[in-house]
Write a structure and sequence with these properties.
Layout (H helix, E strand, L loop, with lengths): L2 E4 L2 E3 L8 E3 L15 E3 L2 E3 L3 E3 L8 H9 L3 E5 L10 H10 L2 H11 L6 H13 L5 E4 L4 H11 L3 E5 L17 H7 L4 E6 L2 H9 L4 E4 L9 H5 L5 H19 L5 E4 L5 H10 L3 E4 L1 H4 L9 E3 L13 E3 L6 H6 L11 H12 L4 H4 L4 E3 L9 H6 L6
Parallel strand pairs: 6-7, 6-13, 7-8, 8-9, 9-10, 10-11, 11-12, 12-13
Antiparallel strand pairs: 1-2, 3-16, 4-5, 14-15
Helix pairs in contact: 1-4, 2-3, 4-5, 7-9, 10-13
Length: 386
């Protein structure tokens, strides 16, 4: 398997969203009659979409609105909302910084200690708004923050880092034990991020409830440039889905996989589901919402790392309310608005009545799918995010 890249060295081919296309089905379905809901730990959610745990994307305001619309939004407990009493002043500093100074300013801002009382307050704020409270931390703080979050009334807890594995070797600190963490929680536990079949299987064996799939594809992430790491999202999702299905056959427990990052259009989202995702996590598209904290800016959560930043601040602009990004009406032709409408229309076109059926859609390798016959669009820079 794979192709020779040098003497005695092979590499397998991997595919991203721009490399594949979905084949229309022999059956079509009324888009208004498809079911796009998904299930996690016995609870069904109307939208198979999570807003990413990034400070330019999710604050209490967006989390509340996302919950009202049927989805989930993850508040990052490593971010400014748990460090600052008044995050608005800090956000103003981030968005007003010059591009040359942005990373340095973000690094200094995230040097402020995390305050446990603010974790309680933010969770309660989201709960009072009527939305599920979903929060995240890095593995090093997972055990402590998970207990605080659970006590404060959180509905789900996410442990997330650039690369997460069930086995971790360290002598300077004690790695988090995911089996132990899961047993200590009465709320669902989502772990990320991973991209390989083996890593997914081992994490599923620890008892976690869902996995985040993706290393480095996010619009504000620079891990692929800094570290050289990553697997294109279609291949990563397909491998994770294969692990999920194998684990289900062996253990009888279904562990959803959530494709995280790299999706900027409805077409990308549809391809993630066709590759095997049960849900998707999106950042930059929601950073463009009027309810997002970033005021039209978006930055990777590894940007403030003191020694090796692996993210950057980008300008994404403001497209409109979150409801319009999700449900339309769209006023652009590039697929960045009405993501739910795109999912429904795609499902109808391939004959899928549920997300599980969409996962069975035929995929083809199609590197010219976005350029074939599009010479005028390309020349005029139309039909694509801009």
């Amino acid at each position: 398997m794979g192709m020779w890249v040098g003497r005695g060295r092979k590499a397998r081919v991997a595919y991203g969203f721009d490399d594949v296309a979905l084949v229309p089905g022999a059956l079509t379905v009324n888009a208004a009659e498809v079911d796009i809901s998904w299930e996690l730990c016995g609870r069904r959610y109307d939208l198979p979409i999570l807003a990413a745990a990034m400070d330019g994307v999710v604050g209490p305001r967006l989390a509340i609105e996302m919950g009202r619309l049927g989805g989930l939004a993850v508040l990052n407990l490593e971010g400014i909302f748990s460090r600052y009493e008044n995050p608005d002043d800090v956000l103003d500093r981030i968005v007003s910084a010059s591009q040359d100074d942005a990373t340095k300013i973000i690094q200094s801002i995230y040097g402020e200690p995390i305050k446990e009382e603010l974790i309680h307050r933010r969770i309660q704020e989201i709960k009072k708004g009527g939305a599920p409270a979903v929060v995240s931390s890095i593995p090093q703080r997972a055990e402590r923050f998970a207990q605080i979050a659970q006590e404060a009334g959180a509905d789900l807890f996410v442990v997330q880092s650039t690369v997460t594995t069930a086995r971790h070797v360290a002598t300077e600190y004690t790695p988090v034990d995911f089996r132990k963490l899961k047993k200590s929680l009465a709320i669902p536990l989502i772990i990320g991020n991973c991209v390989t079949y083996e890593a997914c299987l081992e994490l599923m064996e620890t008892g976690v409830d869902a996995l985040l799939i993706g290393v480095g594809p996010g619009a504000a992430c620079t891990s692929r440039e800094v570290l050289g790491l990553g697997v294109p999202q279609v291949t990563a999702t397909a491998d994770a889905a294969a692990a999920r299905d194998f684990y289900y056959k062996q253990r009888g427990r279904y562990v959803p996989v959530i494709t995280d990052g790299g999706m900027s259009t409805g077409g990308d989202v549809c391809k993630a589901f066709a590759a095997g995702a049960d849900a998707v996590m999106i950042g930059s598209a929601f950073a463009r919402a009027t309810e997002a904290p970033g005021r039209g800016y978006h930055w990777g959560m590894a940007t403030p790392h003191a020694n090796l930043p692996r993210g950057t601040r980008i300008r994404v602009g403001i497209a409109g309310p979150l409801e319009q990004i999700l449900f339309g009406p769209a006023f652009t032709e590039d697929g960045t608005l009405n993501l739910v409408g795109a999912i429904r229309t795609c499902m109808g076109s391939v004959g899928a009545q549920t997300i599980r059926e969409l996962q069975q859609t035929e995929l083809i390798i199609a590197p010219t799918i976005k350029t074939e016959g599009k010479v005028f669009q390309q020349a005029q820079k139309l039909g694509r995010p801009r």
